Amino acid sequence: MPLEFRNVKAGRQIAEWVKELKGKSGVYVIREKAHPIIKFLEMAEVLYIGESHTGRLYTTLLRHFQRWTGKTAGATFAESKVEVAIVRCPANRALNLQNSMIEEFRPKLNIAANPDAE
After folding, report:
1. pTM listed for this prediction
2. CATH number of residue 21's parent domain
3. Number of domains, the chain
4. pLDDT at 37 over 70
């Protein structure tokens, strides 16, 4: 399945495509922004894969771009250095899809958080 990576912001505002995620479920893939040649070759490194199966894809994704503390804190990223792809799916498929994508892409932050995954 080809992934379409995009910026989370358009200028200083949240991009419209991100706003359309409100109330939706699915999987998000965060990768480093790549030099145009690397991007063309689809070689940019995937850093993290997450999911929301509760219709909170918008909120869950955006948490990765702000201060995030507490027991549910996850990786945070500078929006200027990464781009995101979304795979929307029914809530009951999100966790399985996330796990299969982690197996496929082996993002370092997911693997570091779950050392048994190696």
Report:
1. 0.86
2. 3.40.1440.10
3. 1
4. no
